[in-house]
Automatic annotation (TrEMBL):
Gene Ontology biological-process annotations: endosome to lysosome transport; phagosome-lysosome fusion
Family from the record: Belongs to the small GTPase superfamily. Rab family.
GO CC aspect terms: late endosome; lysosome; membrane; phagocytic vesicle; trans-Golgi network
Protein's membrane topology: Lipid-anchor
Keywords: GTP-binding, Lipoprotein, Membrane, Nucleotide-binding, Prenylation
Organism field: Hippocampus comes
Pfam family, one: Ras
InterPro entries: P-loop_NTPase, Rab29/Rab38/Rab32, Small_GTP-bd, Small_GTPase
Main location: membrane
Function: The small GTPases Rab are key regulators in vesicle trafficking.
SUPFAM superfamilies: P-loop containing nucleoside triphosphate hydrolases
Protein name: Ras-related protein Rab
Subcellular location: Endomembrane system; Membrane
Length: 211
């Protein structure tokens, strides 16, 4: 009899400056549609994407589309709560939106971290690549930029042409799962140590005293 698959629910933030294409990316990913006429997001919007993962597992992604101006407000702490992953998006045609990337990353890291003190899995999206503008730095430098600033990776994306959006999302889910497994291993290791310490306390009254 086949074993039942697991269900995973992950909250994923989609953040970045106003007009970089966050809503377009989400609509393309979830609904397979694209429009030039999306209105600016006010506050936060939500979407759900359900993925078949592996042979039996199901992944449910709650995508939180957070307005570009929210970094300047106080609500991001509420919006970020319990998120397990994030996309930070910039517009390849507007250098100022790339300059804002580290401000978004700093805001995220200051308000949200995993149980082991690390930041959540975060992927950088260089959107609107179909317009032919090069990245602010070449590929090698972008890889170094990601390593230096705690990004799991970087993808050039196009919501208009549906480029690299599924690939970026699958990569982020893989990173979230890796972080989740690391936390579980750490918790399991702690659970195996604690009973040993408890037994030692009962036998000689001294935790950590070896005879």
């Amino acid at each position: 009899m086949a074993s039942a698959g697991k269900e995973h629910l992950y909250k994923v933030l989609v953040i970045g400056d106003l007009g970089v294409g966050k809503t377009s990316i989400i609509r393309r990913y979830v609904h397979h549609t694209y429009s030039h006429n999306y209105r600016a997001t006010i506050g936060v919007d939500f979407a759900l994407k359900v993925l078949r993962w592996g042979a039996d597992d199901t992944v449910r992604l709650q995508l939180w589309d957070i307005a570009g101006q929210e970094r300047f407000g106080n609500m991001t702490r509420v919006y970020y709560r319990e998120a397990t992953g994030a996309f930070i998006v910039f517009d390849m045609t507007r250098p100022s939106t790339f300059e804002a990337v580290l401000k978004w990353k700093a805001d995220l890291d200051s308000k949200l971290m995993l149980a082991d003190g690390r930041g959540i899995a975060t992927v950088l999206l260089a959107n609107k690549c179909e317009q032919g503008h090069p990245l602010p730095a070449n590929g090698l430098k972008m890889e170094q930029f990601c390593k230096e600033h705690g990004f799991a990776g970087c993808f050039e994306t196009s919501a208009k042409d549906n480029l690299n959006i599924d690939e970026a999302a699958n990569f982020l889910v893989t990173q979230i799962m890796a972080s989740e497994h690391a936390l579980l291993r750490r918790a399991a290791a702690t659970d195996t140590v604690t009973p040993q310490l408890d037994r030692r306390r009962r036998s000689d009254g001294c935790v950590g005293c070896l005879k």
